[in-house]
Amino acid sequence: MQVTEKTSSSFSWRSLLQLGFSGIAILGLWGVALYMLILGLYQVIAGGSLQGIDPSGFLLAGSLAWIGLLIVPSAWFALLKLANRVPRVPAGLTWDNVRGVIWLMVPVVLAGYGAAITPAIAWLVLPPLNVLAISIPVVWYLSLGGRGLRSSSPQSAWGVLGAGLVLGPGIILGLELVGAGVAVGVLVLWLAPLPGFMDELQRLIQLLETTVTLDPIMFLPFVEKYLMRQSVLTGGLLFIAGFVPLLEEFFKPIGLWLMNKQTLTPARGFLAGMLSGAAFGLFESLLQGVSGEEWVILALARGGTSLIHIFNSGLVGWGFALAWERRSVWPWLTRYLVAVLIHGLWNGHTVLMALAFTPDQTLVGEVWGGIGLGVLGTLGVGCFVALLVINRRLQREAFSLPPSEETVHTASSLPPSPEEQSR
User: Fold this and answer.
1) Contact 71, 164 (CB under 8 A)
2) How far is residue 276's CA from residue 253's CA, in Å, rounded to a whole number?
3) Is the pLDDT of residue 283 over 80?
4) Is the confidence at residue 411, as pLDDT, over 50?
5) pLDDT 10s digits, 298-355
């Protein structure tokens, strides 16, 4: 990548923090990935037979390595900023060019399915195909939502992506664990008066402490007796469809909070939000890698989930920029609540679909399987269309304003296409 000199009048503490955070994240992710890779290779060497190798460790190693690689540009651009240098992005790297990557999805999924059902090669072939199958739809959504819109700099765009890959998920996961702990405590207090509950809970805890290899079947009697109650399942549904969306939609665009507000516009807020949602969707999907016949189902389903994350965070980012511009909280609050509603409906109907096919489950009927699928499909199509509509609206608004001196790159550091340069 070519660089040219650029003068700067003051030291950028924001760039120093970005470089430090990105460097620590890269080393941590690659360190864990290397550890998982070594454990997996030891399994290959010591196992003797390739048929019995569990590919989950290799899937996790590949996912963590990919996430770390995506943070490298954030560190690089921050370093160039500290050195008073600016990169020249290759002229052929445009949204119009990367949008065609979606056509690779079919061969990638077919190859991934073949590898997933072939244990002898799954550990070696499936990890890179899993990364591609998860990443390709994300790039496509970003290319559609970001077309014709501009970011203030590559450093800003990649910094937002890096924060969305590590900082946002870290905060969200920590708070969700705290919330889950509180919910479990309340649940125990709620069920404690039931005859025999505390004795069975104590036996289950002792079993967990003494058993080396856990078999999910051993939990089945306890789950069926106490946790499959209508009141418990309703509380769990409220947690997943209420608390989780409120938390995630608030913290997912955390990179947007750290941006330079002097260059923030509605279009840039929308772009930064989309990048944040894309990062969170990648993190969430890549860490849920499975093998076998379930792999292709998860790979395709996560494409829809990534769309919801990208659209919702773009909506919240757009509202944040409008709120900053107008000095009013309402543009952000209304869009945030819409994003929470969409996310809640998505999570809630996903849970209801799962419950509809649970044996001997009377909380919901099997009809919810079809209803849930219809709701999820409607939400997916609606968010996709809304993504295109908002993009067109922001394009018109952006082209009606004179470009600033700092607006030299499209979103995610992609330069203007030749068609845009001729306008």
Assistant:
1) no
2) 5
3) yes
4) no
5) 888 899 999 999 999 999 999 999 999 999 999 999 999 999 999 999 999 988 887 7
Q: Residue 22: which of 168, 167, 152 has the closest Cα?
A: 167
DSSP lists the bridge partners of residue 86 as 4
Whether residue 90 has pLDDT greater than 50: yes
| Alpha-carbon dihedral sign for residues 291, 294, 295, 299 | negative
3-class SS of residue 2: strand
pLDDT category at 254 given cuts 50, 70, 90 is very high
Tokens found for residue 23 = 């460097």
User: Are 150 and 409 spatial neighbours (Cβ–Cβ below 8 Å)?
Assistant: yes
Contact 312, 222 (CB under 8 A): no
317 touches 265 (CB < 8 A): no
Distance, CA of 224 to CA of 358 (rounded, Å): 11
Distance from C-alpha of 349 to C-alpha of 304, rounded to nearest angstrom: 14
The residues, any chain, with a CB within 8 Å of residue 251's CB and separated by 6 or more, are 168, 171, 172, 175
Find where tokens 């922001």 sit. Answer: 394
Separation in Å, CA 422 to CA 51, 145, 392, 412: 57, 21, 19, 21
Percent of the chain with pLDDT over 70: 84
Helices H / strands E in the chain, number of each: 17, 4
Cα separation, 62 vs 235, in Å, equals 36
Residues 388, 367: Cα–Cα separation, whole Å: 32
Q: What angle do CA 1, 29, 172 make, to 5 degrees?
A: 110
Backbone torsions φ then ψ of 149, nearest 5 degrees:
-105, 155
Q: Are 352 and 372 spatial neighbours (Cβ–Cβ below 8 Å)?
A: yes
Measured distance CA(393)–CA(403) in Å, rounded: 17
Whether the per-residue pLDDT at 191 is higher than 70: the answer is yes
Q: Shortest CA distance to 308 belongs to which of 163, 138, 177, 166?
A: 138
Q: Which two tokens stand for residue 58?
A: 């290799």
Q: What is the mean pLDDT of the chain?
A: 85
Domain ranges (residues) in the chain: 2-176+253-421
CA distance 164 to 312: 14
Residue 44 pLDDT greater than 90, yes or no: no
pLDDT at 231: 81
CA 284, 142, 149, 337 torsion: positive or negative? negative
